[in-house]
Amino acid sequence: MILDLDIGNTLSKWRLKDTASSEIRSRGAVWTREEWRPGSDIPDLDVVEAVRISSVARQTVLRETVGLLRRQVGAVYVARSTAEALGVTNGYEEPSRLGVDRWMGALASYQLAGGCCSVDCGSAITIDFVLPGGRHLGGYILPGLRLMKESLQLGTRNVAIDPDSEADELLAPGKNTVEAVNHGIYMAAVSAVNRIYSEVCDREGVALPLLLTGGDARVVSRGIRVPHAVWPDMVYGGLEACFPLTAAERAGRMSGAPRVPAPVALEKIRAGLAFSMML
Ligand SMILES: Nc1ncnc2c1ncn2[C@@H]1O[C@H](COP(=O)(O)OP(=O)(O)O)[C@@H](O)[C@H]1O
Ligand SMILES: CC(C)(COP(=O)(O)O)[C@@H](O)C(=O)NCCC(=O)O
Ligand SMILES: [K+]
Hints:
Layout: E1 2-7, E2 11-17, E3 24-31, E4 50-55, H1 59-72, E5 75-78, E6 84-85, E7 88-89, H2 100-113, E8 116-121, E9 124-130, E10 136-143, H3 145-152, H4 167-170, H5 177-204, E11 210-213, H6 217-222, E12 229-230, H7 234-242, H8 247-250, H9 266-276
Parallel strand pairs: 1-4, 4-5, 8-11, 11-12
Antiparallel strand pairs: 1-2, 2-3, 6-7, 8-9, 9-10
Helix pairs in contact: 2-7, 3-5, 5-9
The structure holds adenosine-5'-diphosphate, the ligand CC(C)(COP(=O)(O)O)[C@@H](O)C(=O)NCCC(=O)O and potassium ion (K).
């Protein structure tokens, strides 16, 4: 079995993948913390031959986790942001400073769709761009839905946005504090993604496929009006592409990769942008 770990600022996600069949056997998530307890937080390591890790948590968490795993598992692969990988050149002035979850997401999306915009709606919302040809432009970081809500301190932190709400309801004016906050932060997140996507496509003169991942991807997706795909396993896809271990991975197939719809024509994106600015 392969144990894949995606350690975010809020949640540490894991999944077990069968080395022979490439099937996902189980998955789970625990709050990100300093220490792991194999057997309770994550699966028992007896069955694990290899571990692949993407971590943006504090260095100490990664060090502890890797130390623990190395004592029990033969192969431990830790993803890093590099200047170049899999045909993509990192757009950061200091490539290693780019969040490795963003790098994994951009690499996976590029493998799947070519030039792309990859959005990760987690603790933070990150929006990254890779042009056809593989030049990563850099990206944008804004607070995620939960962070935005917590920063307001209006006593609404425990009332989450219902992920099954319709976007139309979530975009309407709120009639009480909880609604006003939930609809406000939802509008902020969705408008930012819509606007940034359109602005960068316009600037670069290319309509790019759009891919979403992260804990809030499903709900944000409802408010995105342009064609896009939701790919919960996007970060894992980057790990598979960087450290291929199964036959399917070596053949370039990433688990759970969605069908990515073609983007709308650039003229339409530009028209939408002009309309939103009343031009
Ligand atoms: N069941 C859930 N538990 C915790 N957070 C959730 C849940 N469902 C959605 N979320 C949202 O997803 C975010 C965490 O998403 P995730 O992509 O795992 O973030 P990170 O990678 O930063 O840890 C939370 O901040 C919250 O807004
Ligand atoms: C921006 C992030 C905090 C997002 O993390 P997440 O919301 O997935 O937990 C993470 O990618 C990170 O720590 N990045 C380093 C800074 C940068 O990318 O510029
Ligand atoms: K994120």
